[in-house]
Each structure stands twice: as structure tokens, then as C-alpha cells.
């Protein structure tokens, strides 16, 4: 119990307090402010009733009344000021945590980024934020009721104390009861009833709500998919139309929706039916308290005005208790999200453990070597790479060749530490690459991935990937990539943002243009290793040709690794490594590999055949025959 | 073309429209609404009366048993209402949110049913965006808020009827005083709300941008570039700047709220002074009872808050109504376009028919030049055509035109002599099996992705997977053709490689077995052997069909009966491969560039 408390509330409080030193003091001030005016109102009414019943003159009451109202006003101003301050604080807190989460998402190693625990923590954080809010909700919904209860308890105990010291002058049986020790016990029992009911109903309701929350994760995931990926983008819309699939998908979305409603109906409503019992008990207890206070009043122990005032205090106490207990309804779910948020932010990143700095070398003497490296994707049955031994010669151009799924891209992912070998090691200058600082290590690579991505930043930032871009170097990079003309034609040249996601002046670029900008980015980085994974897939023949023409400028004296299905482009590599089913099956030059029977020759000829005259004639004939 | 409706409906008309949407999804709506209103009134009035009753019975020195009976009786009624209120609130909200969600689904589906070209119209995009963000996206948007505020308006009206009536009996001018103060404080609140809305409008752009940054930070694509190129710093700077801007706006709103709170507190103080003062005078003069005072004291407080609720609901209803108009007008615009009443022809030939482009031109909305210019083209029934050209030459636009996804700006397209714009699109599309450039893998099983239908012909799925060269890969998956694809909704979903995706797209087209096969760059992501296998199977795949092969891999075009070479939306060369090579123009140039590296003895610096 205590341990659980430590893992949740204590941990949250420590977390927010560390983020912002004014978190707890400000929340307390705001909580006090919330209840101040209601209490004063009860006191005002009680005082007015007592004074009036006791008999007074207009003159005698006028000044105190004005004073009382003025006091309430002044306090209200103070409370409003604190509330304003508190609001600003929570807005900032919310944003700050969002920014921290986003930062973590960007900085962790790709392995952690893709790890199910990390993804799940993010999903829980995200859902919690959408449904319940974040730490601001914790302060407002969780901590504030605790403070309010403490206040109410203090005031109520004072009142009970006062009631104990009152006694009636009358000799009746009722008066004896009112003066006996049984009286406060009954009073406490009445106050206790809604507390017990709220604890029970809140817990029961909370448990049901929890099941709603759990069931909803999958439902929301599916909603998100249909709304944001099926029916939103332009990507699917042609297929959905022409293949007549819109109705099928709409049908599925409606089914998800029906499940969602069933879930709400089943859990949310039922949960509320339980938690609402707390309110019922409060109302009943209020009636009981009035009766008890009426007894005191009837026996002449307290004035009528006090009855109203004390009753007001007690209802404040009971509702403070109930409010605190009713958070049982959503607190477990919120806690899940909060725990997930802190877990996410504090999650260790084994993929980024290395600390060794990378030696800065102008001679680029970085020697990379694979030692018996195997890799299996999480959840996959087969190995994507098996027992790979490979030494990358410095300054050499290496082409990786192989059919789809032979492990070419995996090899690159391991090399750049986007993934970690399942077994075996990769070394840089003799030291396991995992031991190097991840960020520094990744600095020695410039890559154009098959599924490269440009961001909605200006072209110049996309190319330089830096807050202080060297503009002339960016221009040179764009020229080498063959996209400088296009960029100059954009409305703000190299400062034009790509897409309108972050800027209304943004412009869209075609897939081929984007690929060229990605190539420019790789050149700009000027890293000792350059990796090109299908860098021309989106280009038409002329652009592809131009890119090849610039390959020398692009690679210069760097060590290059090149993957392409266009066999025409791999033949210029000094060394060609052929992969098949995760293993290196051939290793040589174009000439040597063409001389031996094997996968490389098959792959090359498969494409080259269409560019020889005889072959064309033959195929033509076949086609005619088949057609007739 | 896109022409939106801009009717302004009244508040009542919009409440009725939305209420119909709600009623369409469930039958209990009206009952829940009425229960809610009654419970609300009972609670508001009960809490106001109870203290006065206490004072009354105590002042009259009633018996304890009677006192207890009365107090417990009232408390029990309040207790029941206290339970009923949250339960009713949740069930009713669940009910009326169904209306909104149904609309949201409609909203999603409309996008893939309206004319395809609308996607390229910025105005349409903006209208949808506005309708979603003001009308549909959240619990607080118009489609739900209009019902909630309507209900609140009715509830507080009923409560106020009782309260104001009783206060008028006590002092005739009390209701007027309270109303006057309520109107003033409502005006203050209105100003704050207006200010908040202005800031909100500014914030929407900021929020969109923050969301983009968040999306880009958490997306799987781009995660590699994010890391290798260290974009984290720049993203952080951008995010921080956006948050700062956002906070500045929100802080301003918070300060406005502070000013408003202070003004309202002053007003209330004044109002209370007048009320209490005059009532106390009456008591001291002996013309008013103490319990009456207790009632009035509480009733004034309740009335003030109820009036504020009433006025606020009314203001918000007006705003909701304007926001809901965005949705209502969008829907009627979209529905009119989807209905497409001029398309009536459902009779499509079962066998290939010639497709004829007659002087077809096409220009994208808002563009300054034609993408396709005066195109004349006849594709004979059963012909194998290849369409070749550089990026942006208009190849994909031609297929979009042929598919009726885009309508020509001038000229017409005929299928078997019938203008294609007379066909009901849904039927017309059955005539084609296209493989689009972008692979679209749905979060569904392999079989469903191939069949794309609720009923799946498994043997046929197996056959086409084999033809497309994907059957061995699928067999290796955990659940074969039943394996779920993508991780969007299934944890154990399989992510296909680029090559596998392309093969899947081909299988899908083959499964459809339509008279016309359209292949737009179907081999770009395939390895050389797989590509070659597809080429070899090409004749078999296209037997008895009309086919259109689009590629800038010229190797693939050589089996075509006729090659169309496209430059800037114009067919500049046409003929068979040998003829075009012999003509030695654009096509021949392109072929030479591609083939040179395959010739023996070629070196990178051969030219």
C-alpha cells in the first residue's frame, strides 16, 4: 500500500516539483482560494440570521454587512489573481511535458524508439493526455481535493469541538441526548456514511472504468487508423474509389465504432452508476446532519443561524471527502498515464549506452568491420542476416546486391546502429561500435535511405540539418544533387519550406525532387561514410542518369556503400558484395563476378537482356504468338 | 466543380437538424432529455429550499419527529436526483455523441466518395478543415455542444421559472434586479469569450504545427533521418517557439478571465448588498419571516448562477449554430456531388472495347497550364499499350482521366463509343484493374488485401499471389494468407518490403480480372530477377485484356503493340520499339541512356 503510494503519488509530486518549484505551493494556494468564498457565504448567512433573530437595528447591522461583503470581494480578487497565476503555470507545465516527450521520442536510439515497451508507454501517455489531461489534471483533480479536504476537516473539527462544549438548559430527554457523548458519535457516524459509500462505490466504479480504458486502447488505435490513414490522406483515396473498397472500409469503421459504443455503454455508464452513489449518500447524510443540528437548536444549545452555518460546513466536509474519493473513478486511469509519462521520460536506452568519443580524423581512416554478425528482427522467425563477415576498405566504393529481402538494408541498419546485432560484433578501428557515443558515432555516416524523409522545414534546414547552415554549401549540395534549378524557382528559394505543414508559404515537391534534396543533404553532411540505399528509385531515367553522372562529386574520396536494383549502377563499384537470404554469397568486382556462374550474373543479365537487340526481337515474337 | 453551399440556418433549425441525426442512431434520446431536465430542476430547487425549511420548522418549534420526517423526506428526493444526474448525464452524452460520431464517419467517407479532383482544391480542403475543427472533432464542438447547450437552456429555464416567480412574490423588483445584473455580467463574459475565441483561432494554426512536429517526431518513417542527421535540436527549437507563442495567447486569455472575475465579484457584492439590505429592513420591520429570508438568500445565489447558465447557453447556441452550418453546408455540398444524378448508365460491356480520347485537355484547378493538351488517342480493344515519358509528362494524369477520376477540361473520352461521363462511376470502375504508383496496403489480412471484398475467393487469391511472385513469401508468414498486414491495428501484423508491396498490388489487380489492366510503374521497387519474372509473365497476365503499361524503365515497354512517348502532356512519338529507335528522337535518347551501362565495356566515364 505504502509502496504503491510511493510509486504513484510521491513519484508524481517529486516529478512536478522538480520541473517547477512553484508547483506545490501554487496548487495549495489555489486550492485554499477555491473553498474560501463558500465558507464565508455560510458564515455570512449564519451571522445575519443570528443577528436578525436576536433583534437589531438597521444602523447597527449596516456597517458590518458592508464590511462583510467588502471582505468577500477583496478575497475574491485575491483568489482570482491566484487562479490566473495557477492557470498560466498549468498551461506551461502541460506544454513543457509535451515538449519533453517529443524530445525523448526524437533522441532515443531507433531500437528503443521501435521497442514495444516504449511505444506502449507513448500510447498510454497520449491516450491519458487526450482523455484525462496530464500532470495539470493530477494537481487540479488529485492534489487539490486532498488540500480541500484537509481544510474542511480542520474547520469541521473545530465546529464539532464547539458543539461538544454547548449544553442545553432544558431537562428533556432530547436535551440529555444532545449533551451526552452519544451525540458526537452519531454525528460522526452520519458523516462517516457517505465516506464509506464513496470509498466502496468509487473503487468499484473505478475498476469498471479501468476495463473501459483498457478496452479502449485498441478501439482508439483502430479509429485512428481509419480516420487518419484510410479516409484522410490522398494516398489511399484512388484505391478506395476505383477498387470499390470505400464501403468495405466504411463498414469496418462503423463496426469499430459500434464496439466503442458498446464499451462505453457497458463500462462507463455502469461505472458512473456506482460512483454516483457517493452523491446520494451525501444528500442523505446532509438530511441527517440537519436533524442532528435541529436537535441542538431545539434544546436551546445553539442559535438557528448556527444550524444553517454548521450544516453548510459539514456539507462542505462531506463533499470534500466525496470529491476526493470520487477520483477513484478516473485516478487509476490517469495514474496509468502519468506513470507511463515518467517511465517514458526516464526509460533507459541500452542502444545508446556507449560513451567513447569518436576520434576526429581528417584522413578519414575509419576502419569498419563485421565479425560474424547475425540479426533477427523482433518477432521474426528467420534471421535477416546470418554470420556476416565483412571488412569495409577505406575509401572504397562497395555495392550491395541481392534480391528483395536478402538483408541489404538490414546490414546498413546495423552498421549505422539503428539496430543492434543479435550476435557478433561490428568494430570501428578495432573497438565494438556499441561502445561509442551514439550521436557521435552516427555523425560519421551520411545516408540516403530507401524510405528517406524530408521534414516540413525550409529546404536550407532540410539540407544542412543544422541551426546554423552554411548557405553557399547548401547551394553547392543542391547543384550536385541536380535540384538547384527547381529550388531556385520556389517562392523563397532555398528558404522555402517544404509542404505547408509548418508554414503557409511552403511548397510541395515531387517524389523525385525530394529524393534529390535528400541526396543533397547527404553530401552536405560531408561524413566519412556515405550510404545510398536505392537513391534513384523515384527518379526518371534522365534524372537517374544525371545523378550517376554526379556520383563522383557526391562520393569523392569517401567510403561509399551503395544499394540498387538497377544493376547498371552497381557495376561501377570497386567491390560488389552479393547477399542472399541474409548471407554473403559472392564478393568481387563486376568483371570477376560476371565471369562466374552465380546470383550476380543472373541478376545482371535479367535486366541487361532487355537492352540487347536480339532479345527484344525474340520477346516481341513471343508476345505476338501469345496474343494471337 | 466544387461550389459550396453557404446557407445560414437558424438556431432552432440547426438544433432540429442535429437532433434528427441523434435520433437516427438511437431511440431513447427524448426520454433521456426530459429526465435530465427534471432532475436538474429538482436538484437546483431542492438545495435552495432545504435550509429555509430547516429555519422554518425550527422557528415554529415543530416536533422532532415531524422535523425529522420533513428533512429526511426532502433529503431523500435530493439523494435520488443526486444519483440520477451523473448517470443521466453520461447516458445522454453517450446518446448525443453518437450523432456526432456518425457524422464524423460520414465526414471521413465523403472524402473518398466526392469527385477525386476536389482533393486538389484548397478551398475544399479549408472547408473540410473548418467543419471538422469547429463542428465535429471533439466533445466540445458544435455537433455535440448544440445539444448539450440546448438541454442546459431548457433545464435552467424551467428552474428559473420557479425561482424568479417565487422571488417576485417576495419583492416584485428582485427578478428585475437580478436579470439586470445577470445581463451586465453576461456581457462581460461575452467579451471574454470573444477574446478567447480570437486567441483560439490563432492557436489552431499553432496547434496544427505542434501536432505536425509531434507526428514527425513519433512517426516510423523519418525516424532514421531524424537520428542520422540530428534533427532533434531544430525540432526542439521550433516546438519551444510554438509553445511560447501559444502560451502568450493563453496567458492573455487567463488575464482577461481574471479581470472578468473581479468585475463580476464587484457586481455580485453590490447586488447582494441591495437584496440583503432591503430584506433585512423588512424583517426588522416585522413584515418578512426569517425562513423567507433564508430562502431568498439562497434563491438569489441560485438564480444568479442559473441566469448566467441560461445566457451562456444561449450565446453558445448561437455560436454552435454558426459552427454547425459549416458541417451542414459541407455535407449537403458533398452529398449533392456524390449523388451525381447525370450519371445513369450502368450497362458496361463485359469484353474489352476501344477507348478513345477526343481532343482531351486537362488542367488542374488553380494551375496555370494544361497538364494534358489536346490529346487524341485510340486504344483498340485488347491492345497492349505502353506509356513512356519523364516525371511530370502527364502519364498518371492520363490514367486518372481514363479512370474517370479526373474529368477533362475540354474534349471527351469514349468507351466503346459511349462517353464515359454517363456511366455510374462505381460500375464504370469495375471495368478496370489498376496498379497505382503508390502501394496501398490496408491493415487487413493478405487475402483481404488481394480480394478487397468482404467475401474472399481463397483459391483465386492463391493463384494471383503465385502469378505476382508473392506466394512463397506469403507461405512463410505466420498465418499464410490470413496474416494481418501492417502494425496499425495488429501487434503481430507484418510489414511488407517495398518489393513485396508492389507484388501485392499486382496480385490485387489480377484478382480483379477486369477487361482493362493499368500498370503504373509496377516494378520500380523490385529486384532484377523479380522484375524479369513479371515481364515474362506479362503476356499471360494480359491475355484477352486491354493493357496500359506506364514506366520509365524502357525495358518493360518492348512487348507493347504500341509505345506512346509523352512530353509535356503531348504525345510526341508513337510506334513500336524498333520504329522509335530508328526515328532516333526522344525515346531513342532515353533508351540509350538506360542501356549504355548494360553494354559490355562501359565505364562510368565512357562519355
TrEMBL record, chain A:
Gene3D superfamilies: ABC transporter type 1, transmembrane domain, P-loop containing nucleotide triphosphate hydrolases. One of its GO terms (molecular function) is ATP binding. Residues 368-606 form the ABC transporter domain. It comes from the Bacteria. The keyword Ribonucleoprotein does not apply. Keywords: ATP-binding, Membrane, Nucleotide-binding, Transmembrane, Transmembrane helix. Its main location: membrane. InterPro entries: AAA+_ATPase, ABC1_TM_sf, ABC_transporter-like_ATP-bd, ABC_transporter-like_CS, P-loop_NTPase, Type_1_exporter. The keyword Iron-sulfur does not apply. The chain crosses the membrane at residues 21-49, 61-82, 146-165, 185-202, 273-295. It is found in: Cell membrane. It is a multi-pass membrane protein. PANTHER family: ATP-BINDING CASSETTE SUB-FAMILY B (PTHR24221), ATP-BINDING CASSETTE SUB-FAMILY B MEMBER 6 (PTHR24221:SF654). This is ABC transporter ATP-binding protein.
TrEMBL record, chain B:
It comes from the Bacteria. SUPFAM superfamilies: ABC transporter transmembrane region, P-loop containing nucleoside triphosphate hydrolases. Residues 140-319 form the ABC transmembrane type-1 domain. Residues 355-593 form the ABC transporter domain. It is a multi-pass membrane protein. Keywords: ATP-binding, Membrane, Nucleotide-binding, Transmembrane, Transmembrane helix. Its main location: membrane. It is found in: Cell membrane. This is ABC transporter ATP-binding protein.
